[in-house]
């Protein structure tokens, strides 16, 4: 059973969502503001649903502090049309956003999509690698990706990618030298169709570029092809 931390100061909404998500088989814990969320968050949560407009500590500041210690997937709940907050959330490491008011079925679908690509194997992350895990590892230009625990290592250092960033890197590495459209990347890595004016892929790519080290061959990792998509450079 996936465990959700729902962070919103709207008590009526949190009660309704808690009941809905419980019926869908999720375990739901509630926090009424950012400070309460930060006090509750730990590695046991599989996803955080985080409202932006809250008293005491807003969602943007909460996300910023959360990302200092946790890579737990975060779905931001934003006011419809508030593009600035959505962009800031994605820049700070949110996995996706959903504008209010939203359809219950869409919320559940988004949560399940994020969980599918961001499965947190907590026991594996604390265990030593097994030969089987090593065989499953993906290597490219000095990077070693472990899909089972969604971890990327470079020279012994964990790059601490979010689940979405890891999924995006996996898709690109499986298709080196190929132009991948933003639409394809959205489907494969984010689990959703790309909509008009959706900048999620671009923001996640920007975050990924910042976290990746300098390549041994000094090539850039990716090239942006305007109007076409992204390509993982091979030489």
UniProtKB/TrEMBL annotation:
Family matches, as Pfam families: Response_reg (PF00072), Trans_reg_C (PF00486)
Broad class of where this protein is predominantly found: cytoplasm
Transmembrane segments: none
Alphabetical list of SUPFAM superfamilies matching this protein: C-terminal effector domain of the bipartite response regulators, CheY-like
UniProt DNA-binding region: 135-234
A GO BP entry: regulation of DNA-templated transcription
Domain of life (superkingdom): Bacteria
PROSITE patterns: OMPR_PHOB, RESPONSE_REGULATORY
Keyword terms: Cytoplasm, DNA-binding, Phosphoprotein, Transcription, Transcription regulation, Two-component regulatory system
Record's subcellular location: Cytoplasm
InterPro entries: CheY-like_superfamily, CpxR, OmpR/PhoB-type_DNA-bd, Sig_transdc_resp-reg_C-effctor, Sig_transdc_resp-reg_receiver, WalR-like, WH-like_DNA-bd_sf
Domain OmpR/PhoB-type: from-to ranges: 135-234
Residue ranges constituting the Response regulatory domain according to the UniProt record: 3-115
Keyword DNA-binding: yes
4-aspartylphosphate PTM positions: 51
GO MF assignments: phosphorelay response regulator activity; transcription cis-regulatory region binding
Recorded GO CC terms: cytosol; protein-DNA complex
PANTHER family: REGULATOR OF RPOS, TRANSCRIPTIONAL REGULATORY PROTEIN CPXR
Alphabetized NCBIfam families for the sequence: PRK10955.1
Protein name: OmpR protein
Organism: Mannheimia succiniciproducens (strain KCTC 0769BP / MBEL55E)
């Amino acid at each position: 059973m996936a465990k959700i931390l729902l962070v919103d100061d709207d008590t009526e909404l949190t009660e309704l969502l808690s009941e809905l998500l419980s019926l869908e088989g999720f375990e739901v814990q509630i926090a009424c503001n950012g400070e309460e969320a930060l006090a509750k968050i730990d590695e046991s949560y599989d996803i955080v649903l985080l409202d932006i407009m809250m008293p005491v500590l807003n969602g943007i500041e909460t996300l910023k502090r959360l990302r200092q210690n946790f890579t737990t997937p975060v779905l931001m709940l934003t006011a419809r049309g508030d593009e600035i907050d959505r962009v800031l959330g994605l820049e700070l490491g949110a996995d996706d956003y959903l504008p209010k008011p939203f359809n219950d079925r869409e919320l559940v679908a988004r949560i399940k999509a994020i969980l599918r690509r961001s499965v947190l194997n907590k026991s594996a992350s604390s265990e030593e690698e097994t030969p089987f895990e090593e065989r499953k590892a993906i290597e490219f230009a000095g990077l070693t990706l472990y899909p089972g625990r969604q971890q990327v290592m470079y020279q012994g250092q964990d790059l601490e990618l979010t689940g979405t960033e890891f999924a995006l890197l996996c898709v690109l590495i499986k298709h080196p030298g190929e132009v991948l459209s933003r639409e394809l990347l959205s489907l494969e890595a984010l689990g959703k169709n790309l909509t008009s004016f959706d900048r999620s892929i671009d923001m996640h790519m920007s975050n990924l570029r910042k976290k990746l080290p300098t390549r041994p061959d000094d090539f850039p990792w990716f090239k942006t092809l305007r109007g076409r998509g992204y390509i993982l450079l091979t030489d």
